[in-house]
Design brief:
Growth Hormone, Chain: A, about 425 residues, single chain, mainly alpha, 18 helices
C-alpha cells in the first residue's frame, strides 16, 4: 500500500484528501517560486561585490523567467507521462542544485548557469499549468477557488520570503541567501515523496465533489509530442492568441518589472533594501487575498469582465506610481491597490482556457499561455534594467507597462465572444 493511500485512509471522514494534495502543492509552489525570485534581493549586493552591471545581473533573472515559461508545457506533459510526484521531485532537485551552486559563483556565466538555467528549469514545475493540472485532476467542485489558492502561492512565494532574505543578505552577506533557500527546497522533498498522490483513484477515492474513479494510468505518449500537440491545437484558435497576448502583458507588469526591479526602484528613492523588501512582502500578502477572492469570483461571474477590471486597475496603479512621492502613504496605497491585483488574472484565464479547449487539454495549453506570460516577464526584466542604465530611472519602464495593461483590458473582452467550437469532451 502506498504512503499516500495510507494517509488518505487516515484522513477519511475528517477532510477530503484533495485538500491535502492542494496544501502540499501550495507549499511546494510557494517555496519553489520563492527560490526563483530570490535574485531580486541580490541585484544590489552582487553589483557591489563583483562590480557587475544591473543589466548583466538582470539578464540572468531574465533567463530564469524565460525558462520557467518555456519548460511549463513540458512539465505538464511529464506529469501525464511519469506522474505529478516524480515531476515535482525532479524539479526540486534542479532547484536545490541551482540555488546551492549559486552560492559559489564568481563570474557572470556561473550566475547564468545556476540561477538562470538550473533554477529556471526547476521552476517549470511550479507554473500555472501545474496548478491547473492539480485542480482539474482533484477537484470538480471549488475548482476556481483551488486554482486561486495555488496561483496565490505561485505569486506570493516570490514576495513573502523577501524581507527575511533581504535581512540575511544585509546581516550575513549575500551567500547566505542561496544557502537558506536551498535548505527550504531540500525540506520539501520528503513531504512530496510521502504525501503526494497521483490522482484521486490512486488514493482510493473520487475527486472532491464527485464519485470514486479508477486510478489514473500514466500515458505512454512522448511528453514532447504531448506538449507540441497542445501548442498546435491552441495556435489554431484566435482565443489562444488573445489569452496569450493578454497574459504576456500580465508577466510584463508583474514578475519581470515589479518582481525584479521594485526593490531597486525603491532604493533609487533612498529607501533601505530591507524596507523595500517589506513592501514586496506586503504585496504578496495582499496578492494572497486578492487571488483567492478572484478564484471565488471566477466560480460565480463572467471571467472576461473580471479580467477587464483586473488589467485596468493594475495599469492605473503602474501609471500613477512614478508620479508619487515614494513615501509611506503612497507606497502603502500602491501595495494594497496593486497587491490585490498581482496575479488575480490567473483563475479567470485558466477558466477561459478550460472553457475553450476542455479540461483534458486545458493544462497543457494553459502552460503555453503561461509561457507567453514568462516571455513578457523576461522582456520586462532585461528591458527595465536597460532603461534604468540608459536614463537613470525606471519611470519609462513603469509607464510602458501601465499602458500595456490598459490595452490588455480591451483584448480580454474579445475572448470566446462567439460560440465555442474547439472544446472537446472531457
Amino acid at each position: 500500500m502506498s504512503s499516500a493511500l495510507r494517509f488518505a485512509r487516515l484522513f477519511s471522514g475528517r477532510v477530503h484528501y484533495a485538500w491535502i494534495v492542494a496544501a502540499i502543492s501550495f507549499t511546494v509552489i510557494l517555496v519553489g517560486v520563492g527560490v526563483r525570485a530570490a535574485p531580486s534581493v541580490l541585484l544590489v549586493p552582487l553589483e557591489q561585490t563583483f562590480g557587475w552591471s544591473n543589466d548583466t545581473i538582470s539578464g540572468a533573472v531574465s533567463l530564469n523567467i524565460l525558462l520557467l515559461g518555456l519548460t511549463g508545457p513540458f512539465a505538464v506533459a511529464l506529469m501525464q507521462t511519469i506522474g505529478i510526484r516524480r515531476t515535482m521531485l525532479s524539479a526540486l532537485v534542479l532547484l536545490a542544485l541551482g540555488a546551492g551552486g549559486s552560492a559559489f559563483v564568481t563570474r557572470p556565466w556561473q550566475l547564468y548557469l545556476t540561477w538562470g538555467l538550473l533554477v529556471g528549469l526547476g521552476a517549470g514545475a511550479t507554473g500555472f499549468g501545474v496548478a491547473a493540472t492539480v485542480a482539474n485532476r482533484w477537484f470538480v467542485a471549488r475548482r476556481g477557488l483551488v486554482i486561486g489558492l495555488l496561483t496565490a502561492s505561485n505569486a506570493s512565494g516570490q514576495l513573502v520570503f523577501l524581507p527575511a532574505l533581504a535581512a540575511l543578505a544585509t546581516g550575513l552577506g549575500w551567500v547566505s541567501v542561496p544557502l537558506a533557500v536551498t535548505a527550504l527546497v531540500l525540506a520539501m522533498i520528503p513531504l512530496v515523496w510521502l504525501l503526494l498522490a497521483e490522482s484521486p483513484g490512486a488514493a482510493g477515492i473520487g475527486p472532491y465533489g464527485a464519485e470514486a474513479e479508477a486510478p489514473m494510468q500514466p500515458t505512454a505518449a512522448n511528453p514532447f509530442r504531448v506538449a507540441f500537440e497542445g501548442l498546435a491545437r491552441g495556435s489554431r484558435s484566435v482565443d489562444f492568441w488573445l489569452l496569450a497576448g493578454s497574459f504576456a502583458v500580465c508577466g510584463f507588469s508583474t514578475y519581470g518589472l515589479v518582481g525584479t526591479h521594485m526593490i531597486a526602484y525603491c532604493m533609487d528613492h533612498g529607501i533601505a533594501e530591507v524596507t523595500a523588501a517589506g513592501l514586496m512582502a506586503s504585496l504578496g500578502i495582499f496578492d494572497l487575498v486578492g487571488t483567492i477572492c478572484s478564484g471565488w469570483l471566477t466560480d460565480r461571474y463572467n471571467p472576461r469582465i473580471l479580467l477587464f477590471w483586473y488589467y485596468s486597475l493594475r495599469g492605473l496603479s503602474l501609471l500613477v506610481l512614478p508620479f508619487t512621492q515614494f513615501n509611506l502613504l503612497s507606497l502603502s496605497i500602491f501595495a494594497v491597490f496593486y497587491g490585490l491585483d498581482w496575479v488575480a488574472t490567473v483563475p479567470p484565464t485558466v477558466t477561459l482556457t478550460n472553457e475553450v479547449f476542455g479540461r483534458t487539454d486545458g493544462p497543457v495549453i494553459v502552460s503555453w499561455i503561461f509561457c507567453a506570460h514568462q516571455l513578457g516577464g523576461s522582456l520586462a526584466a532585461i528591458a527595465a534594467g536597460a532603461v534604468r542604465n540608459a536614463t537613470g530611472s525606471y519611470m519609462l519602464a513603469f509607464l510602458a507597462s501601465g499602458a500595456a495593461c490598459m490595452l490588455a483590458s480591451l483584448l480580454v473582452l474579445r475572448i470566446a465572444r462567439r460560440p465555442v467550437a474547439v472544446a472537446v469532451a472531457e
